[in-house]
Amino acid sequence: MKTDFTDEQLSHIIDQSLIYQCACPAQVAKHIIGLRDLHEYQQNCINQSDTDIAVHQRIAADAARAHQALEECLHAVLQLEQWDLTTLTMPNNLQKIPRVI
Amino acid sequence: MIQVLIIDSNPYTRTLLVERLTSMAHCVVQAYESSTQLKVSALPTAHTVVVLNHHTRNDSPAEFLTQLKAHSPQYYIVVITSPGVQKRSMVALREAEKIDSIFEKPIDLEVLAQRIDKQVESFREIQQLTTDHLNLLRFLPTGALRRIFLDLTPGQAEVFDMVVMFTDIRNSSRWIMETSARDYFAKLHTLLGEQARLIRLYDGMVIKTTGDGLLAVFAGSARCHLALKCALAIQRAAQSETLPVGVGITDGLMLAGILGTQDHLHIDVIGVQVHLAARLCNKAQAGEILAAQSVIEKGHIRFANAPLAEAISVRGFDTPVNCTRIPPQF
Questions:
Q1: Contact (CB, 8 A) for B268 and B182
Q2: How many CA atoms lie within 13 A of B101 on its CB side?
Q3: Does A19 touch chain B (CB under 8 A)?
Q4: How far apart are CA B51 and CA B35, in angstroms?
Q5: Nearest neighbour of A23 by CB, restricted to B56, B86, B106
Q6: Does residue B80 sit at the A interface (CB-CB below 8 Å)?
Q7: Phi, psi (rounded to 5 degrees) for A91
């Protein structure tokens, strides 16, 4: 399955979104990780009949399509929110509380 | 108070965690940027909550968390992690019982706070139960006598070979007339508290208070020696308080058991030697120890002021009892 974001990049986006108030890109990233898990699971699933093969192939193909759509979505959302696309750092104005301890 | 340690390398997310968790009751929150700031061996082993917000670009916390749990299994360790590979590695740690709880990012801070609050409450209950337990232990016998409590049936008793000692503060009737009840009680508490401390110091056990004195027992092969040393120490302490004490000591077989009802139990000792020790205590002069001859023979104590052997008539006993009067040794 083709990927634009690495697992590490997705986790880094999620890391910066600790709480739900500032977590829209993180929600998308989380589902992308879920789709990757689903895709991998289908690849490794046991096939005992032709139907099994068809089922697993269908799910894997649709997971890949959904994955591509969500990766494009994440890219667009990060641009809209003006994240630093090189470092994937959340802009300060999205952080809930600016004070540092 | 329960200590809550937050470890989070990101200043922003650390702030969010600290702000929310410091608002919880009964907690003291401390925050750290990195686990390397914590020396595990120097941390307290008491009940503590640890919240680690793990970031993908940090080093794996597995070794640190393993050390932490090994240092104190009483720690409640919460890890906040992103899904996927990071979470899977944490799930493995949880299955190995190195951590207790995993929160997947993004989290609901309120749910996290509720979980920690529940844990803090649980720790406080454990602390209270531990305190209660230690307090209750102070009401129980020590040493071999404790086995009586294996069967908490009223009337259940066992035979023990022990020394029994009664103490009694002399002139207490006059004393109570000259002071207020509250002052009398406070003074009595101080004097009997000191006697009880000395009894414990010499491996004895207080069975009960008897108004102006105590009933104590001593077990084991050195019981006569220890009981005499203890009686001498009590006499010295009483002398410094200018309130003389009489002491009676005997040795032999007696029953120790549980009296009362299922709703109210107490330990007591019963037997001829107990009666005799009480009578000897009554007959002892102020500042004197009156002991059965067998106690003196087994005790092997060298006295500064020579004791006086005497056969004493005791109410309830057909023949005079061989005793020794030990005068004040100071």
A1: no
A2: 18
A3: yes
A4: 11
A5: B106
A6: yes
A7: -65, 150
A70 touches chain B (CB under 8 A): no
What b/e readout covers B306-323, taking b as 16+ CB neighbours within 10 angstroms?
ebeeeebebeeeeeebeb
Task: Chain A: give the shortest CA distance to residue B69, in Å.
Answer: 24
Distance CA B272, CA B274 (A): 5
Q: Is the pLDDT of residue A97 over 60?
A: no
- Among the partner residues A14, A36, A99, nearest to B15 by beta-carbon distance: A99
For residue B283, give the amino acid letter: K
Section A39-65 average pLDDT:
88
pLDDT in tens, B64-91: 999 999 999 999 999 999 998 889 999 9
Q: Encode pLDDT of B305-316 as tens digits.
A: 889 999 999 998
* Interface A-B: count of C-beta contacts within 8 A: 81
Rounded CA separation B14/B151 (Å): 54
Burial of A27 (0-12, 13-18, 19+ CB in 10 A): middle
Mutate: best of A3, A11, A100, partner B, most B CBs <10 A: A11
Position B44 confidence tier, pLDDT thresholds 50, 70, 90? confident
Any A CB within 8 A of B315 CB: no
CB-based contact, B102 to chain A, within 8 Å: no
For the ranges A13-27, B15-29, B196-210, the lowest mean pLDDT is seen at A13-27
What average pLDDT does this structure show over A35-51? 86
H-helix segments, B139-222:
172-178, 181-201
User: How far does the CA of residue A77 sit from the closest CA of chain B (Å)?
Assistant: 17
* CA end-to-end distance (rounded Å), chain B: 49
The residue of chain A with its CA nearest to that of B81 is: A15
d(CA B244, CA B242): 6
B260 touches B154 (CB < 8 A): yes
Name the residue among A11, A27, A95 with its Cβ closest to that of B12. Answer: A95
Q: Can you read off the two tokens belonging to residue B113?
A: 């706070």
User: What per-residue confidence (pLDDT) applies to B227?
Assistant: 97
The residues near A31 (Cβ < 8 Å, ≥ 6 apart) are: A70
Task: Read off the tokens for B192.
Answer: 């009997």
pLDDT of A82 = 92
Beta-bridge mates of residue B52: B7, B79
**Interface contact A6, partner B, CB < 8 A:** no
**In which band, very low, low, confident or very high, does the pLDDT at A32 lie, cut at 50, 70 and 90?**
very high
